[in-house]
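testing teh design pipeline on a random one, pls ignore if ur not involved
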């Protein structure tokens, strides 16, 4: 395994954030987050570039998982770290698949894939008339691994579950997630439109506002 790279110039608690490691190797998330944080003068580095392995997501809440991922990346790199945890919460299913969205079908004995998750969700919702759902995202930013005051932000993107897929963009549950206000599924939206209005975008704007307040 490659050695984890420590980065010089890590911000100590209280100092301005210039360089932040993103506790994810998802290229799409890096692009989305880098664009918004770049405007605030923050350079974002993917943890994979520093040879940081993916952290476990063992917790029952989004915020605990996001914090664990951020602390893991900060501990290994010596840099401030940003992590997100997200999922789809369906009203008629008591908030499921929720924090287990990525492994929804797998936890029921199926495979770990978007197709299996969507099939499992559709069968859970068969005959259900309450189709309300939202995507939820929690962001956690720690200035260092033991930061006692992590910045936490969250975003909800409300919609309704379809019973047949629409659109080819996006990922995960997007073809089944309908936005009445836009008259489109998330997978029918231009990616730039999704990235500007999604749960992640809402949470990131909240985080940026908190950072600006702090500065
Ligand atoms: P993670 O936060 O990247 O671990 O995402 C958790 C899971 O939630 C994903 O694997 C998807 O199943 C679901 N999810 C989170 N955000 C989205 C989204 O924007 N579109 C579709 N599915 C999503």
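output:
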């Amino acid at each position: 395994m490659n050695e984890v790279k420590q980065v010089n110039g890590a911000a100590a608690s209280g100092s301005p954030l210039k360089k932040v490691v993103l506790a994810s190797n998802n290229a799409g998330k890096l692009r989305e987050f880098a664009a918004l944080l770049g405007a605030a003068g923050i350079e974002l580095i993917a943890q994979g570039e520093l040879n940081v392995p993916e952290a476990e997501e063992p917790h029952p809440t989004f915020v605990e998982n996001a914090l664990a991922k951020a602390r893991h990346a900060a501990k290994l790199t010596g840099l401030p770290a940003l992590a997100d945890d997200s999922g789809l919460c369906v009203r008629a299913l008591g908030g499921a698949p929720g924090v287990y969205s990525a492994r929804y079908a797998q936890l029921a004995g199926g495979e770990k894939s978007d197709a299996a998750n969507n099939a499992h969700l559709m069968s859970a919702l068969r005959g259900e008339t309450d189709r309300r759902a939202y995507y939820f995202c929690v962001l956690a930013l720690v200035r260092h691994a033991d930061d006692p005051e992590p910045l936490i932000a969250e975003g909800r993107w409300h919609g309704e579950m379809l019973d047949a897929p629409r659109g080819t963009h996006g990922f995960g549950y997007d073809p089944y997630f309908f936005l009445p206000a836009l008259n489109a599924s998330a997978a029918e939206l231009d990616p730039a439109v999704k990235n500007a209005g999604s749960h992640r975008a809402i949470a990131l704007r909240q985080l940026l506002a908190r950072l600006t307040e702090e500065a």
